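Figure 3 (text version): structure tokens given as input.
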């Protein structure tokens, strides 16, 4: 379950980065793209600790 949550967070951050790029906010797009992996890892660890 934790893997699926991490995958969803990763995909949402990538989509957010694409939205920022398409609206002209290049720096925010880069930050969202680079920040997607740590947020996905943190969510995976958090959900893995719950044991669901």
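Below: residues designed for each position.
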């Amino acid at each position: 379950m934790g893997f699926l949550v991490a995958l969803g967070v990763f995909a949402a951050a990538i989509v957010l980065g694409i939205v920022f790029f398409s609206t002209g906010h290049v720096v925010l797009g880069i930050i969202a793209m680079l920040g997607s992996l740590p947020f996905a890892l943190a969510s995976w660890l958090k959900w893995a600790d719950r044991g669901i």
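The chain has one domain: 2-50.
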